[in-house]
């Protein structure tokens, strides 16, 4: 049943977490107008991207995802190179997005502690240790409870649904700091905290990586676009899904409207009961979520209860996205595109269930090492986190653009066709991703300093250079693109399933 796999994908989207953890970004960008109408705008444009990749995924369902689609859609002379570029965009994207979720959940734990100990501000090394606890817990569950992941994802979906309802009722009923009018909740706009002009501040509040505004301990992730960053990662579970040509595209596309409604039910009660914005932006550590809930509920216990719902969603999201990252890592290694591909493409049996353990470990180690950057430079670390959205957006847009340039000929027989609206939907999706990437390269506040500069574009180009150099050193001779069903070699790899080893 496709709805089950939509529920699994909901664990990756984790709308209340995606909107709650980086709440300060929207407040800096302009406040309620940015938060509520930005959510509408981003959901609308992301829907075109979801429809576009859903159409492609229906015809080419595989855990390799976008880089496999590029290989199948591009011309013969360019398909290997296009697949290589897209594969590295996907890998960097899933590793850094996983990092952002696990690290962001750790930051959320710090915010929960601040409810009862407001004077405590976590140091960089304390934050890193908390991040490690979240990362190792998520990885351990994915490895040792792999057979229970579908059940965990369904529990996550219902936790999110029921939690959103609880938040809606509790915040609306309590409103300890007062209620706002609809004019404020839907129309208040103050771009002064960002320093940008009003129009640009609106978009800055939606999309780019929020930089450090108060101290070196500040960490605020992306806002609305961050929530939808991983819409295509459900394809990484293709070999583990029954009837993927129908279930995968439905899960991808339906996640947007259902996620949008979930976001509306979460955001409206917050905006109608929002405490003083200046007070929230002055919270030590830059994470106002715990203090905000405490103020609205009028007690530490009430604020902690609401915070616990968001933290639970964050943990479920971390488990799911680390799992998806491991599958993407395994798929790229299977296709001989990363160093030591023979080792990382192996599948081990853990508690009687096949698990890409080596791919899991590689994904986890990369997150662990990138997290160390936070100890030296929070601005540099933030760039690694933010570049994930850019990489994934570019990787999703590439096969859509290739399909457009080919006149959408390959999509005429897709099991999930867009019909006559296909050209328009694909074009809007590609233009939206390009616009996203520009915004994600911009600093959140001006004037710009070394600590407030957005280095995401530098990191993006750096990863691109690394992948190009590795292609010249090894990839050009060993990488032949992902295996396709009509390859002459008849093996388990043709179906996207490597030989399993114990």
UniProtKB/TrEMBL annotation:
Would you tell me the Gene Ontology cellular component terms?
A: membrane
Q: How does it sit in the membrane?
A: Multi-pass membrane protein
Looking up Pfam families in the UniProt record yields:
AA_permease_2
Where mainly found?
A: membrane
InterPro entries, per the entry: AA/rel_permease1, Amino_acid_permease_CS
**Disordered: region residues:** 481-502
* One Gene Ontology biological process: amino acid transport
PROSITE patterns associated with the record: AMINO_ACID_PERMEASE_1 (PS00218)
From the Swiss-Prot or TrEMBL record, what is one GO molecular function term?
transmembrane transporter activity
**Transmembrane regions listed in the UniProt entry:** 92-116, 128-145, 151-171, 258-284, 304-326, 355-375, 381-402, 423-446, 452-473
Sorted alphabetically, the keyword list is: Membrane, Transmembrane, Transmembrane helix, Transport
Where it sits in the cell: the answer is: Membrane
Superkingdom of origin: Eukaryota
Q: Which PANTHER family match?
A: AMINO-ACID PERMEASE BAT1, TRANSPORTER, PUTATIVE (EUROFUNG)-RELATED
Could you identify this protein by its name? Amino acid transporter
| Organism, scientific name | Collybiopsis confluens
Classification lineage: Eukaryota, Fungi, Dikarya, Basidiomycota, Agaricomycotina
């Amino acid at each position: 049943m496709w709805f089950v796999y939509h529920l699994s994908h909901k664990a990756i989207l984790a709308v209340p977490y995606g909107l709650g953890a980086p709440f300060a970004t929207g407040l800096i960008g302009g406040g309620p107008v940015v938060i509520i109408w930005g959510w509408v705008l981003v959901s609308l444009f992301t829907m075109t991207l979801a429809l576009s990749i859903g159409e492609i995924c229906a015809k080419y369902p595989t855990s390799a995802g976008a880089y496999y689609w590029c290989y199948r859609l591009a011309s013969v002379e360019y398909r290997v190179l296009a697949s290589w570029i897209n594969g590295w965009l996907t890998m960097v994207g899933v590793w850094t997005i996983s990092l952002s979720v696990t690290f962001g959940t750790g930051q959320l734990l710090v915010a929960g502690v601040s409810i009862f100990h407001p004077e405590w501000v976590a140091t960089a090394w304390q934050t890193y240790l908390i991040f490690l606890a979240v990362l190792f817990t998520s990885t351990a569950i994915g490895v040792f409870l792999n057979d229970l992941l579908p059940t965990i994802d369904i529990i996550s979906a219902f936790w999110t649904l029921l939690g959103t309802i609880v938040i809606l009722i509790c915040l609306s009923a309590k409103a300890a700091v007062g209620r706002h009018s609809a004019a404020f909740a839907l129309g208040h706009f103050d771009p002064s905290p960002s320093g940008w002009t009003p129009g640009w501040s609106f978009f800055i509040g939606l999309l780019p990586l929020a930089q450090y505004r108060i101290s070196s301990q500040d960490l605020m992730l992306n806002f609305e676009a961050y929530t939808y960053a991983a819409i295509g990662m459900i394809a990484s579970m293709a070999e583990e899904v029954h009837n993927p040509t129908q279930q995968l595209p439905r899960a991808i596309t339906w996640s947007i409207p259902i996620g949008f409604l979930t976001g509306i039910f979460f955001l409206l009660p917050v905006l109608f009961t929002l405490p003083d914005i200046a007070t929230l932006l002055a919270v030590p550590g830059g994470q106002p979520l715990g203090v905000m809930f405490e103020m609205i509920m009028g007690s530490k216990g009430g604020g902690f209860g609401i915070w616990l719902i968001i933290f639970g969603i964050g943990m479920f999201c971390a488990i799911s996205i680390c799992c998806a990252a491991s599958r993407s890592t395994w798929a790229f290694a299977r296709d001989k595109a990363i160093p030591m591909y023979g080792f990382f493409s192996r599948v081990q049996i853990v508690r009687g269930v096949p698990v890409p353990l080596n791919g899991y470990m590689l994904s986890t180690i990369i997150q662990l090492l990138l997290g160390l950057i936070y100890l030296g430079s929070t601005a540099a670390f933030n760039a690694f986190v933010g570049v994930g959205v850019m990489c994934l957006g570019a990787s999703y847009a590439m096969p859509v653009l290739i399909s457009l340039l080919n006149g959408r000929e390959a999509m005429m027989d897709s099991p999930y066709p867009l019909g006559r609206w296909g050209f328009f939907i694909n074009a809007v999706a590609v233009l939206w991703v390009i616009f996203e990437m520009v915004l994600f390269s911009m600093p959140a506040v001006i004037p710009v300093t070394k600590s407030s500069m957005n280095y995401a574009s530098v990191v993006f180009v750096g990863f691109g250079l690394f992948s190009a150099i590795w292609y010249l050193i090894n990839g050009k001779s060993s990488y032949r693109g992902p295996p396709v069903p009509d390859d002459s070699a008849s093996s388990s790899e043709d179906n996207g399933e490597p030989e399993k080893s114990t």
